[in-house]
Amino acid sequence: MSQTIAIGADHAGYELKDEVGRILQGAGYEVLDLGTNGPESVDYPDFAAAVGRAVQDGRASRGVVVCGSGAGACIAANKLTGIRAALAHDTYTAHQAVEHDDANVICMGARIIGGALAEEIVLAFARAQFTGEERHQRRLDKVNALEAGAGTTDQEHARA
Question: Does residue 67 share a domain with residue 88?
Answer without folding.
Answer: yes
